[in-house]
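Design request, tokens follow.
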């Protein structure tokens, strides 16, 4: 029952975006650009400015990047075997390698692990934001190539022009330099940044409204879902086994690895035209599938049962 309580508001926002697009026919690409270039940098700044950096971050940074690149390798090997194009490979990476450990993951952790799980969930949400602001944008930009002539330098230039990472770096810099910001300024930053969360989910609903079920690429979608919902927690189990952290933290990291695809990836795929229909479908279906897979993962890791 807890899962339905957590997911109901999320699906309500999807529905709002879906209906709005069907009735009003918005320009989803421009809305995506507004969220990515205007709203998201403020969210990144707020996230990194308000969460204190500690030495434990080193372990979690190694974990989050290690998990991401392990999944990238899995997708890349499968893409070579199936002879997928670079654009298709990048779309599958966006679909499978980044999890929704924010508006979905943290409430689940709070229900099953209490404040201990929630606090670690917030830390991982911060780090996941950084991974998506760098690695995620890199593959979204790489997937936007129209041909094989585009060089690595061209892709890097596209990543450099994205303001989200700069928002994150500024947040870290302001925190480390102890630069104080007034309450009114932080309120403004928070209002702009928090707006991006809802806008991203509405855009996902809009993108889903443009998808025709009969035209979905089910082989690619299926492997992306398999990687996201099953292979990801398995890889996480292998990684946390070697990490010198408390058992409860290992449980939390495995559960987070089993979360559905991040909605932010839809934003990136729309902006760079990296098969947005595949990425948005993976986000939607992985969220549905998580109703079945997450209780299984929670049971296998021995998560406390809430009463």
């Amino acid at each position: 029952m807890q899962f339905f309580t957590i997911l109901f508001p999320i699906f309500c926002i999807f529905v709002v975006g879906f209906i709005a697009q069907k009735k009003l026919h918005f320009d989803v690409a421009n809305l995506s650009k507004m969220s990515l270039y205007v709203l998201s940098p403020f969210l990144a700044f707020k996230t990194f400015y308000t969460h204190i950096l500690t030495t434990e971050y080193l372990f979690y940074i190694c974990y989050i990047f290690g998990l991401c690149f392990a999944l990238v390798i899995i997708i890349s090997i499968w893409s070579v075997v199936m002879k997928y194009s670079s654009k298709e490979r990048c779309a599958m990476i966006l679909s499978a390698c980044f999890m929704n450990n924010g508006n979905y993951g943290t409430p689940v952790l709070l229900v099953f692990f209490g404040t201990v799980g929630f606090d670690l969930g917030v830390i991982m949400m911060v780090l996941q934001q950084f991974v998506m602001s760098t690695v995620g944008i890199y593959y979204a930009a790489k997937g936007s190539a129209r041909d094989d002539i585009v060089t690595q330098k061209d892709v890097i230039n596209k990543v450099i022009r994205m303001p989200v990472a700069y928002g994150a770096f500024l947040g870290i810099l302001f925190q480390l330099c102890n630069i104080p910001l007034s309450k009114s300024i932080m309120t403004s930053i928070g209002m702009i940044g928090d707006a991006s969360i809802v806008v991203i989910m509405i855009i996902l609903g809009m993108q889903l409204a443009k998808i025709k079920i009969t035209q979905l690429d089910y082989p690619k979608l299926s492997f992306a879902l398999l990687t996201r919902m099953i292979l990801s927690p398995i890889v996480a189990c292998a990684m946390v086994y070697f990490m010198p952290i408390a058992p409860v933290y290992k449980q939390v990291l495995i559960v987070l690895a089993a979360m559905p695809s991040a909605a932010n990836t839809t934003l990136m795929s729309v902006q760079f035209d990296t098969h947005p229909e595949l990425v948005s479908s993976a986000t939607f279906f992985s969220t549905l599938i998580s109703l079945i897979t997450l209780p299984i993962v929670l049971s296998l890791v021995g998560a406390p049962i809430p009463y």
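Comment from the thread starter after seeing the answer: thanks! Residues 105-142 form the longest helix (38 residues).
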